[in-house]
Amino acid sequence: MYRGLVSSLLTQERIITTEARARGIRPQAEKLITLGKRENLQARRLAVQRIGHKKAVRKLWDEISPRYAQRKGGYTRIVKLGNRHGDGAPMAIIELVK
Known about the structure:
Blueprint: H1 2-12, E1 14-18, H2 19-36, H3 41-51, H4 54-67, E2 76-83, E3 90-96
Antiparallel strand pairs: 1-3, 2-3
């Protein structure tokens, strides 16, 4: 489940999900962006193995990692939205910091 959320976050750069899931995928997304800063084949293969979507890995290497080349961390932001109407689950937006 988290693999799909992380790949959606990397391709769309902003997703709406529950607060618990957002907190769960944040460390994985941060580690993948840090991994994307390493410009070698081994790092790219590790990212493909962890994400599973080549389109998301391509965007990670071509657009996202160069954007954060000078940043040392804190690539994502979680904004709380409120509770979902159906079951009352707390919702949040997780997005990549610009």
